[in-house]
């Protein structure tokens, strides 16, 4: 296992001294945002974590090794590689990518697995995967939900994207025993928008409460992590009324073109980017930075 993990010196040092560390995913870089904004954002997220007093650890698989923290050169080459040439890794294909010596970006699920192996307990991202609309026919339910049920990492996201079926996503999380904790409001946030029209199951406004809740789960021997849902800042949000028709159109086009499986989320994100004249990307960037700040505070409370 030691040979499989490659730690950035800064991360190794932080973990050895018990300093707060925040894991970051790489699929958002390769499949979630266009180049070169993706590179700019990846760097900005790391800076934001540092400014908030924690050490960032961006996770990716490079030539068959799990990298915990990427140097700038690696980050740049990953960001510049077209998504079609990088594996999008979840629980199902992580081991295969490593065994074949290949390079891949980690989704929420795969990043959780790698963070846990590295001893990192907090992870910041944009949005998690969830139950897709029409899942009753397509069976498209993100492996992120099952990972949250089994791997003890606290994941900070801005809710699940409105491209998903949010009520069904909440139902599945409840069935799987995953606490969904809203911060600063009672509603589940909906990624680009603060409101989803759905009540969040739990609310904790203080990072210390979130840290205490993770400790209590461990003390009880409960498997799995926590999903912290942090609303996008008011000044950056795109209201729900604006997003609903955009999402409907992107979904209709995906259905028309027969987009399926792993391609669904990247396709929808790209179409929504085009349909909002780039506004969705600005919102996406703002919410990721906002999540990085909160994750750093939670990691600090846990350290
Ligand atoms: N949300 C975003 N951008 C992304 C993703 C989610 O705003 O790039 C990625 C995450 O890595 C998440 C994955 O884990 O999409 C979910 O993909 P799927 O629905 O295929 O499980
Ligand atoms: Mn899927």
UniProtKB/TrEMBL annotation:
Residues at the active site: 25, 161
Residues binding substrate: 88, 108, 142-144
Cofactor-binding details, from the entry: Binds 1 Mn(2+) ion per subunit.
Protein name, UniProt field: Pseudouridine-5'-phosphate glycosidase
Catalytic activity: D-ribose 5-phosphate + uracil = psi-UMP + H2O
Gene3D superfamilies documented for this protein: Indigoidine synthase domain
Cofactor (UniProt): Mn(2+)
Keywords linked to the UniProt accession: Glycosidase, Hydrolase, Lyase, Manganese, Metal-binding
Known function: Catalyzes the reversible cleavage of pseudouridine 5'-phosphate (PsiMP) to ribose 5-phosphate and uracil. Functions biologically in the cleavage direction, as part of a pseudouridine degradation pathway.
GO biological process: one example: nucleobase catabolic process
GO MF assignments: hydrolase activity, acting on glycosyl bonds; metal ion binding; pseudouridylate synthase activity
Family: Belongs to the pseudouridine-5'-phosphate glycosidase family.
Protein's organism: Paracoccus litorisediminis
Binding site for Mn(2+): 140
Underlying gene: psuG
Gene Ontology CC entries for this record: cytoplasm
Entry keyword Hydrolase: yes
Alphabetized HAMAP family for the sequence: PsiMP_glycosidase
Known partners and oligomeric status: Homotrimer.
The organism's place on the tree of life at top rank: Bacteria
Pfam families: Indigoidine_A
Membrane is among the record's keywords: no
The enzyme's E.C. designation: 4.2.1.70
């Amino acid at each position: 296992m030691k040979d499989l993990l490659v730690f950035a010196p800064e991360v190794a040092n932080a973990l050895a001294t018990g300093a707060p560390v925040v894991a970051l995913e790489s699929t958002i870089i390769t499949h979630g945002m266009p180049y070169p904004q993706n590179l700019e954002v990846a760097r900005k997220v790391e800076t934001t974590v540092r400014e908030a007093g924690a050490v960032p650890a961006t996770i990716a698989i490079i030539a068959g090794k799990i990298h915990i923290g990427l140097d700038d050169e690696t980050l740049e080459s990953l960001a510049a590689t077209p998504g079609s040439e990088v594996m999008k890794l979840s629980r199902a294909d992580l081991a295969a990518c490593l065994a074949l010596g290949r390079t891949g970006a980690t989704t929420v699920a795969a990043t959780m697995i790698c963070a846990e192996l590295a001893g990192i307990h907090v992870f910041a991202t944009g949005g998690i995967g969830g139950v897709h609309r029409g899942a009753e026919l397509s069976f498209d339910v993100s492996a992120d939900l099952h990972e949250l049920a089994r791997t003890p990492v606290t994941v900070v996201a801005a809710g699940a994207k409105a491209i998903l079926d949010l009520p069904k996503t909440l139902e599945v999380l409840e069935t799987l025993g995953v606490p969904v904790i809203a911060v600063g409001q009672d509603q589940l946030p909906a990624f680009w928008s603060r409101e989803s029209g759905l009540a969040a199951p739990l609310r904790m406004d203080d990072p210390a409460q979130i840290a205490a809740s993770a400790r209590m789960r461990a003390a009880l021997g409960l498997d799995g992590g926590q999903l912290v849902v942090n609303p996008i800042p008011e000044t950056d949000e795109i209201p729900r009324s604006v997003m609903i028709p955009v999402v409907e159109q992107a979904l209709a086009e995906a259905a028309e073109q027969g987009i399926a499986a792993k391609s669904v989320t990247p396709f929808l994100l790209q179409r929504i980017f085009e349909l909002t004249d780039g506004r969705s990307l600005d919102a996406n960037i703002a919410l990721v930075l906002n999540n990085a700040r909160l994750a750093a505070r939670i990691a600090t409370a846990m350290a």
